[in-house]
């Protein structure tokens, strides 16, 4: 697996694919090892890197449903996944994640949802995945600090304005202590780990 991960990291670098970065990766792996989620929903497959980390470091026979909009990336992901021992465990669904989440079986509850697709849609993703989350399930969201802009007082460049606004909204939503507990790891591009409180 080490060789395949290395190959994927090189591919990502060469083709500017934003896979979870080196610092975020460490936290991500620790969380996967700790919670060992069996049923995982991933929003944003890219080339399958984080999906393979999840199967490799996580529960034996964990099942991942991974959503990806870009056909070429999904193909590349399938290609890499086919070179691993986890091809039966990861299923990629091509298309817009927000739409495809709604088509998922409402009775199939996830132990973990990894949010890592369109940054401007995190609040929407959150609303949509909550009914699909197991009672003791966790939600991980990558890039919530988005290049430092989210927590900064400085105005973000115009092209990032909406993303930053939506990520702030996301953080505010998961910081509602009546509903959730959330820890934000500043490593990498910001990783938010959220658990839902039982009373909701
Ligand atoms: N989780 C991956 C990285 C994902 S990068 C890893 O860490 O290895 C974000 C991905 O989300 C990109 O591949 C992009 O094509 C995809 N994406 C963007 N908008 C999307 C949408 N609306 N629906 C599904 N996927 C989307
Ligand atoms: Mg990311």
Short description:
With 200 residues, the protein is an alpha/beta fold.
Oligomerization state? single chain
CA(first)-CA(last) distance: 40 Å
H/E element sequence: HHEHEHEHEHEHEE
Helix content: 25-40%
**How many domains, as an integer?**
1
CATH class call = Alpha Beta
CATH architecture descriptor name: 3-Layer(aba) Sandwich
Average of pLDDT: 97
CATH topology: Rossmann fold
Helical region count?
Answer: 7
Number of strands: 7
Structural class: alpha/beta
Ligand identities? S-adenosyl-L-homocysteine, magnesium ion
What is the 3D shape? globular
Tell me the Rg in angstroms.
Answer: 16 Å
Across the major sheet, the strand order is 3-2-1-4-5-7-6
Looking at this structure, what is the CATH superfamily?
Vaccinia Virus protein VP39
EC number: 2.1.1.-
Protein name: tRNA 5-hydroxyuridine methyltransferase
Pfam families: Methyltransf_3
Subunit structure: Homodimer.
Structural features, described:
The chain is α/β, with parallel strands linked by helices and 200 residues long. The protein has helices at residues 2-15, 22-35, 49-57, 71-82, 97-102, 122-129, 161-174; strands at residues 39-43, 63-68, 90-94, 110-115, 133-142, 180-185, 191-196. Helix 4 links the parallel strand 2 and strand 3. Helix 2 runs parallel beside helix 3 (49-57). Residues 18-20, 44, 46, 49-50, 67-70, 73, 96-97, 116-118 line the site of S-adenosyl-L-homocysteine. This is tRNA 5-hydroxyuridine methyltransferase. It catalyses: 5-hydroxyuridine(34) in tRNA + S-adenosyl-L-methionine = 5-methoxyuridine(34) in tRNA + S-adenosyl-L-homocysteine + H(+). InterPro entries: SAM-dependent_MTases_sf, SAM_O-MeTrfase, TrmR_methyltr. Its EC number is 2.1.1.-.
């Amino acid at each position: 697996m080490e060789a395949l991960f290395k190959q994927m990291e090189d591919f990502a670098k060469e083709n500017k694919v934003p896979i979870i970065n080196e610092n975020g990766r460490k936290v991500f792996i620790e969380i996967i090892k700790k919670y060992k989620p069996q049923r995982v929903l991933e929003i944003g497959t890219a080339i399958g890197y984080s999906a393979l980390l999840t199967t490799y470091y996580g529960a034996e026979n964990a099942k991942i449903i991974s959503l990806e909009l870009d056909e070429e990336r999904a193909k590349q992901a399938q290609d890499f996944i086919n070179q691993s021992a986890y091809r039966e465990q990861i299923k990629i669904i091509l298309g817009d994640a927000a739409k495809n989440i709604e088509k998922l079986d409402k009775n199939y509850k996830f132990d973990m949802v990894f949010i890592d697709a369109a940054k401007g849609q995190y609040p929407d993703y959150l609303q949509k995945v909550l009914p699909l989350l197991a009672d003791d399930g966790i939600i991980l969201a990558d890039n919530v600090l988005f290049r430092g802009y989210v927590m900064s007082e400085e105005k973000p460049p115009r092209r990032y304005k909406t993303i930053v606004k939506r990520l702030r909204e996301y953080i505010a939503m998961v910081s509602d202590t009546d509903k959730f507990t959330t820890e934000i790891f500043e490593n990498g591009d910001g990783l938010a780990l959220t658990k839902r409180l039982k009373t909701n």
